[in-house]
Amino acid sequence: MLCVGDKAPNFMLPDQDENLISLSNFKNQGVVIWFFPKASTPGWKNEGIGFRDELKKYNKLNIVVIGVSADPPTKQKKFSVRNNFKYPLLCDESHTMLESYGVWGLKKFMGREYMGISRITYILNSDHTVKEVIEKVNTKSHACDILDIIG
Questions:
Q1: Distance from C-alpha of 88 to C-alpha of 80, rounded to nearest angstrom
Q2: If pLDDT is split at 50, 70 and 90, which confidence band does 43 have?
Q3: 85-134 residue pLDDT tens
Q4: Max CA-CA distance within the chain?
Q5: Which residue has better confidence, 43 or 72?
Q6: In sequence order, what are the residues at sequence separation of 6 or more whose Cβ sits closer than 8 angstroms to the Cβ of residue 20?
């Protein structure tokens, strides 16, 4: 996992429209990167809707919102269109970015172990150093919680 003060690793990933997106595309902008386990699941839908509904506030603060999962572009596209998301949902099927950001690893649920994505959000400064790391995510209020932090 990245720590406050770390330089965020650059990435180049397709979004829901198969456009290649890189962290370097957002020079001199703050960035919120929220990682979610799977497109179209109820909790992550709520989180995504929160960012959608608060996006104008993020834009006024010169902050870009990016969602990331290991889903392919077709699933991200359905998730995005169904919920009218106006920000990129990146697709890291190879787990390269997920690993470099420390969010891909062993998880346990109901006695079963598997590899998956941890519920972590990074808030990056405009120079793309880590400003905040959020490990406890309330999917219903997450977008507003972040606005309170950066307020």
A1: 9
A2: low
A3: 999 999 999 999 999 999 998 888 888 898 899 989 999 999 999 999 99
A4: 44
A5: 72
A6: 12, 13, 14
Question: Is the CB of residue 21 less than 8 Å from the CB of residue 121?
Answer: no
Query: Between these two residues, 42 and 81, which has the higher pLDDT value?
Result: 81
Q: Which of 64, 76, 84 is nearest to 128 (CA)?
A: 64
SS (H, E, C) the chain: CCCCCCECCCCEEECCCCCEEEHHHHCCCEEEEEECCCCCCHHHHHHHHHHHHHHHHHHHCCEEEEEEECCCHHHHHHHHHHHCCCCCEEECCCCHHHHHCCCEEEEEECCEEEEEECCCEEEECCCCEEEEEECCCCCCCHHHHHHHHHC
CA atoms within 13 A on the CB side of 30: 19
Hey, which residues does 132 pair with through a beta bridge?
A: 123
What is the crossing angle of helices 42-60 and 73-83, to 10°? 70
Q: How far apart are the first and last CA of the chain?
A: 24
